[in-house]
Amino acid sequence: MQAEDDLLAFEITRADFQALTRVIEHARERLEAESGADRQTIRNASGEELLPLLYSRAGAAIACDGDGVPMLVCEIRHLDAAVVNLESYGGHETILCEGHTLLERFAVLSKQTRAALTVDGILRLPRSTPQTPCG
Questions:
Q1: Exposed, middle or buried: residue 127 (CB in 10 Å: 0-12, 13-18, 19+)?
Q2: What is the rounded (10 degree) CA torsion for 107, 126, 123, 46?
Q3: Which of 69, 92, 70 is nearest to 14 (CA)?
Q4: CA 19, CA 17: separation in Å to the nearest integer?
Q5: Tens-digit pLDDT profile for residues 81-117
Q6: In what side-by-side order are the strands of the sheet with 114-119?
Q7: How wide is the angle at C-alpha 129 spanned by C-alphas 111 and 126, nearest 5°?
Q8: Fewer Cβ in 10 A, N or C end of the chain?
Q9: HEC states along the chain?
Q10: Nearby residues of 60 by Cβ (< 8 Å), 6 or more positions away
Q11: What sign for the dihedral angle of Cα 10, 13, 17, 23?
């Protein structure tokens, strides 16, 4: 377990995680349908490259402590890219609103950061009270 002082993270809820996944996946679908860009460009522009990282963090959170999912402040840019591209490529209004709501929420949460830890290569946030180790 190693502390990463330069990795500032905040905790998102499972509902935030699910909404973020919906926004990013919808952005990817719209870009695939409308942009004509190559796969790597779509992956970058939709924010999709963030999802594998968040899936592993969500799995660790569920398995070990049941709390929220850590997200780095610098990763908000992936959501921002997804929202901008949904605006440009005709994203569904409900998903677009959800994306804007998440951006506002993450802006607030980004002011409540903690130094993140990496445990077995997965980003974690230390608990404010000691917990029993996972597995």
A1: exposed
A2: -20
A3: 69
A4: 5
A5: 999 999 999 999 999 999 999 999 999 999 999 898 8
A6: 69-72, 2-12, 114-119, 122-124
A7: 50
A8: C
A9: CEEEEEEEEEEECHHHHHHHHHHHHHHHHHHHHHCCCCHHHHHHHHCHHHHHHHHHHHHHHHHHCCCCEEEEHHHHHHHHHHHHHHHHCCCCHHHHHHHHHHHHHHHHHCCCCEEEEEECCEEECCCCCCCCCCC
A10: 119, 122, 124, 134
A11: negative
Beta bridge partners of 115: 8
Tokens, residue 104: 């506002």
pLDDT in tens, 49-79: 999 999 999 988 888 766 789 999 999 999 9
